Amino acid sequence: MPILVKDYTWQQTDRELYISVPLKGTRADGSNVLCTEHYLKVSFPPFLFEVFLFSPIDESRSIAKIGNGIILFTLYKQVPSVWDTLTAESLDKKEMQSIREEAIARVQEKAKQDIQAKAVVKRENEKYSLEVMMKLEDEERRRIEVVKEEERRKATEEMEKWKEQQRIEEEQKRMQKKIEEEKRKNNINKATFASQLEPCLKGHEKNGTQVGKKVEEKVLPPTRTNGCIKITFTPRVFPTAVRESRVEEEEEWLNKQAEARRAINLDDKELQDLKEEEKNPDWLKDKGNKLFAAGDYLAAVNALNLAIRLNGKIPALYLNRSACHLKLRNLHKAIEDSSKALELLIPPVPDNAGARVKAHVRRGTAFCELELYVEGLLDYEAALKIDPTNENVKFDAEKIRQIIQNSSPGVE
């Protein structure tokens, strides 16, 4: 048999009723509390507290807090009045048993409705997750098709260039062969002319005729072959002229970019095909911000992903990507990115206070969306420690406290 608790205390106003029940050194939780309009029960074996109330109360507004060895009930009366006693003394056993059974039935029905509601929410979340995953897969498939088409185009252009080069080389060989043939014919003609001239010269010598001048043979240089000389210029990264540029700063920037490429292994074919500005994390961060402002959150995530691959030590990249994940309801990823941003924002200094506030608020928001309100409240309180004057954060933190209080164990 349970031991009935009778050393409880109670107070009242016209509209409210306060009941304090000692726990007798034992523990109780929300599953041990039952509250309806006319009935209040707390079971913490081997003890039992049971009250059949004098007048009906508003069970939807009433709350119970468990802690410090007591249970404190705050009950709201349906009709403002002052009760003569806490319990209804005119009830017989049959009426009390009927009230108990009705209370249990109502609690069971409410639990069943809660389970059904959670199942509906779970199905909706699964459906949304599936739709998002399918959309991401479609985007990835389209991106792969674009990459393949670009590769095919490049291969076709290279093939056309190779064919053109082969045609030029064949033309050059043909012209060279023609020139050599012309030279060979000229040499044959000269030899024939010399053989015909020699008997005449010998005849003149026999007749005593002097030849005043020796026939000189002109040797013409060979015709130059035509061809192509390839000239390549080293591309300049910065568009300004050297005389107008700041060489030391440009060299420092180039060295940092080279270190970043070595760190992420730029042998990756995908990164090698990027334009020069697309290899700059700051440029990609600005692009992600513009896409986020335009509502294209998936494209913003892709831009920030590439920026993080190029330089994973910039807190703002993770902080901005967490905002995109919140919009896409990728809540676990939003928590991961906010945590990573907080790791990179160490040591905490006044210059990064604003970024730390954003990281705590976004992580706290993601926790609350996952119904982890206690963890979310801790992040909001951490943000308030950094910026105690932020009214928006104060307002949201108070709303979370109310949610936690209204969801306290034992409230029905």
From TrEMBL:
One of its GO terms (molecular function) is nuclear estrogen receptor binding. Keywords: Cell projection, Coiled coil, Cytoplasm, Neurogenesis, Nucleus, Repeat, TPR repeat. InterPro entries: CS_dom (IPR007052), CS_DYX1C1 (IPR037894), Dynein_assembly_factor_4 (IPR052004), HSP20-like_chaperone (IPR008978), TPR-like_helical_dom_sf (IPR011990), TPR_rpt (IPR019734). It is found in: Cell projection, Neuron projection; Dynein axonemal particle; Nucleus. Its main location: other. GO terms for cellular component: dynein axonemal particle; extracellular region; neuron projection; nucleus. Residues 3-87 form the CS domain. Residues 145-185 form a coiled coil. The keyword Cytoplasm applies. TPR repeats lie at residues 357-390. The keyword Coiled coil applies. GO terms for biological process: determination of left/right symmetry; epithelial cilium movement involved in extracellular fluid movement; heart development; inner dynein arm assembly; nervous system development; outer dynein arm assembly. This is Dynein axonemal assembly factor 4.
